[in-house]
Design goal:
It contains four helices and five strands; from the N terminus they run ββαβααββα. With about 100 residues, the chain is α+β, with helices and mostly antiparallel strands. The protein has a domain at about 35-100: Multidrug-efflux Transporter Regulator, Chain: A, Domain 2 (Orthogonal Bundle), CATH 1.10.1660.
């Protein structure tokens, strides 16, 4: 399959059309049936950078301070991983500026 001039390999049964940006940005991981684009995966450092924070440790503090902060979707040996659309939704709902 080709998309935007690039060859894209797909696994049998894999969705061949990428999600529309609106679809990805406005739907939580649960609403997307557990599917997340690889490009939407972020760690604390990426969240900090995109929200204009100086330190990634602030993201971890937010997890303790705000019950509505999105849950990470994975925990790796290198750290926690979130779905950026979930963090974006939280940031907008709490009046934070996004520096994508």
């Amino acid at each position: 399959m080709e998309h935007s001039g690039r060859q894209i390999r797909t696994m049998p049964g894999q969705r061949t059309q990428p999600y529309q940006l609106k679809d990805t940005a406005e739907r939580s991981v649960e609403e997307r049936e557990g599917r997340v684009l690889v490009t939407d995966l972020v760690g604390a450092a990426e969240i900090a950078g995109r929200l204009g924070l100086k330190q990634a440790t602030t993201v971890h503090a937010w997890r303790r301070w705000y019950e509505d902060f999105p849950q990470p979707i994975a925990s790796l040996s290198s750290g926690l991983v979130w779905a950026w659309p979930d963090v974006t939704r939280w940031a907008k709902a709490t009046g934070r500026e996004i520096h994508d």
